[in-house]
Amino acid sequence: MGNIFVILKPIIHVVMKAAGMTSQLVEIEPGTTMHFWVPTESIHPNNKLTNKSPVLFVQGFIANGIVTWLFQVLSLCSNFAVYVPDLLFFGDSITTRPEWSTSIQGMMKLGVEKFSLVGFSYGGMVGFKLAQLYPHMVESMVMTSAVIEMTESISNASLKNVGFTNWPDFLLPKTVSGVKVLLSIGTQKLPWLPEFFYKDFHETMFGNRKKKVELLEALVVSDKDATIKTPNYSQRIYILCGDDDKIFNKTFSDDMKNSDFAVYVPDLLFFGDSITTRPERSTSIQAECLAKGMMKLGVEKFSLVGLSYGGMVGFKLAQMYPHMVESMVMSSTIIEMTESISNASLKNIGFTNWPDFLLPKTVSGVKLLLSIGSHKLPWLPEFFYKDFHEAMFSNRKEKVELLEALVVNDKDATIKVPNYSQRIYILCGDDDKIFNTTFSDYMKE
């Protein structure tokens, strides 16, 4: 029987081709060639790039790019422009340059100017370095089982966790039993695998041993020479970590996180203690006051999370002040309340106007409002509804005016089709009784 990984290689090529991916060798510079899996449509004549959002997947140290990310690529390539390189001295990527630090990897030759990045283990460290060197290219990152930089103190602590004294002995095992130890430590629950799997893995995945040893030696830096003492990235970073990670445990991921988000929670006009003597009642004045309030607080850029009416205010804010709003998470909302959307939504909930629904005059009206506005309303005592009614519906006259100003004629809508520069995440529920998935589907590009 032949080596299973050698047998699988042409099969993977067929599967990837069927999924719309193509293998390509890219000369980064004379003497340095990187192998990529790229969207087939991106290598058409005139290098016409796909309009899908580009995502770069960067492997760990054990296997090449596609072996690491095969299942993720197959799941995501229909919705994203997926790029999967082999890092230098993995797969078919080579260089004759004497220095092999994590700073020499790149995507520019493929004509991709901006992308999101997903990094695993060693690939995460490469990704952090790439984001540091080329912040204009990396828009956001998802990092798992990685640290920003392998300082001596982190290296020593991690090696102690896994019971080794150096990285080559662990990551470049010389025996089949060493492969078993590596895979058992590197996975949460390693399933039973036949003996030939480990033997074939050992024969296939550890080529260029001398070069990889040198990569590992170059990876560890003295604590005093570390280029980044504290995380300071312009990109949005998502860190995935496991409580039982045996190499980089949760202590390291906690250290990477900023201590907290700087959270700002305003009361919109005529809610809480926020007031105005200006006569306007549109979402534009709410957005203007929010923007000016944030500027007064010294905040020039921020992400925004909006719910329902706050989502519509948020969309208006992003339209009026695009330089301030970097990204948005919107839930149970729409871009603009046109007459047709308003009528359809009111019909969904059995009302003829918004004040009767959102500004109930009775305790039973409060119960109906909360039951429609929540997925599964738990039992609450009667006094809760009574006190809620007494406390939450002040400034009734002004709020009625806000609701009247909220609805615009279809022909006067300022935004026919969503067109925002920000990254927008839309959260919607299939059972949303007010703005159902029909509206959220319309908002998506």
From TrEMBL:
InterPro entries, A to Z: AB_hydrolase_1, AB_hydrolase_fold, Meta-cleavage_hydrolase
SUPFAM superfamilies to which the protein is assigned, alphabetical: alpha/beta-Hydrolases
GO MF: hydrolase activity
Lineage: superkingdom: Eukaryota
AB hydrolase-1 domain boundaries: 54-169, 259-356
Record-given protein name: Hydrolase, alpha/beta fold family protein
Species of the source: Solanum tuberosum
